[in-house]
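Narrative of activities, Objective 1.

The group set out to show that a structural description can be obtained from nothing but a protein's sequence at a throughput compatible with the screening campaign. Below is one input-output pair from the validation batch, recorded exactly as produced.
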Amino acid sequence: MNPNSVAVVGHLYVDHIFDGITDIPHLGEEVYASGYHRSIGGGAAIASCWLARLGKDVSVIGVIGAAERNLFVDAFHKFGVNCRLVRVCSDPSGLRVLPRCTRTGRSLHIAEPMSGSKRTCWTTACCTSSSA
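Output recorded for this entry:
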C-alpha cells in the first residue's frame, strides 16, 4: 500500500454560486446577482481536491446524480483525483446555493440532501461573516 494513498468518503454537492449580491434579502424581498457559476462542493469533493494538490494519491467515494456526472468527473480529473468509486444514481445531486453579499461579506448557505438520500427534502440556512 502506498503511504501517500488516501480514500475520501462523504458528501458530494453541486454548489450554485451567485456573486455580486448587494445584500442578503429579507423575507419577501428579491435581490439580483451579477454573476453565477456551478462548482463541485461538499466535504468529500473539497478534501479530495486539496489532498491531491498536496501530492497525495486520492480516491473519492460518494454518490452523484447522473445529470451532474460530467461536472464532477471533469473537476476531479483536473485535480488528479480518482473518481472510479463515485456511484452515479438517477436522483439529482445534492445542491447548495451560495449567494455571496458584496456589501456585508456574508453568505447564505442553503443545502438539499445528497443523491440517493431516502429522507424528504430539507433546507438549512446559516449566515456567516467573512470577518469571523
